């Protein structure tokens, strides 16, 4: 699912771009772009990151599971983006919901959410071979506080969700 895009995607297939990768197989990615070792030598950075289920933390009313985006992951994304290369981030949800930091959406030129998708299909979408059509099957909360304030038996009651149920962007038709 394409969550944000400032127009960077789809990447050009007209010329072979230089791409810095993290979390993707370089051999597969080399079919789409020339893979480089450093962000500064790249035309684009493509990062696949995982949302990691946090551990239990004792709370006033018992144990709580953290679904906050890992700070170390956000620091890595910011470091790559700060090198000046346009950065595309695919967040792999796996089986865990996550509270995405708003900073991610302002740092990355494009943000996708994937569910354990293979590298080639992900790159097919990033390079425009396929137009993203996925829609969120749930809403993404804007904060852990919003998650704590939700009712367990009432869907879509998160206060000011970051993305509402059914959200998903596609590329403009050309």
Task: Summarize the entry for a quick read.
The chain is built from five helices and eight strands.
Question: How would you describe the overall organization of this protein?
Answer:
By secondary structure, the chain is an alpha/beta fold. It has helices spanning 26-29, 71-82, 102-107, 119-126, 144-149; strands at residues 2-5, 18-22, 34-36, 44-50, 56-59, 62-65, 87-92, 110-114. 21% of the residues lie in helices and 22% in strands. It has a six-stranded mixed sheet. Strands 5-6 form a two-stranded antiparallel sheet. β5 (56-59) and β6 (62-65) form a beta hairpin. Mean pLDDT is 89; it is low at 53-58.
List the keywords.
single chain; 174 residues; alpha/beta; six-stranded mixed beta sheet; two-stranded antiparallel ribbon; 5 helices
Mean pLDDT: 89
What is the topology, as strand order, of the major beta sheet? 1-8-7-4-2-3
How large a portion of the residues is in β-strands, by DSSP E? 15-25%
Query: What is the distance, rounded to the nearest whole angstrom, between the alpha carbons of the first and last residues?
Result: 20 Å
Shape: globular
How many beta-strand elements?
8
Biggest sheet layout: 6 strands, mixed
**Counting H and I runs of at least 4 residues, what is the number of helices?**
5
Helix content: 10-25%
Q: Kindly name the structural category.
A: alpha/beta
Uncertain runs are 53-58
From the alpha-carbon coordinates, what is the Rg to the nearest angstrom?
Answer: 17 Å
Order of helices and strands: EEHEEEEHEHEHH
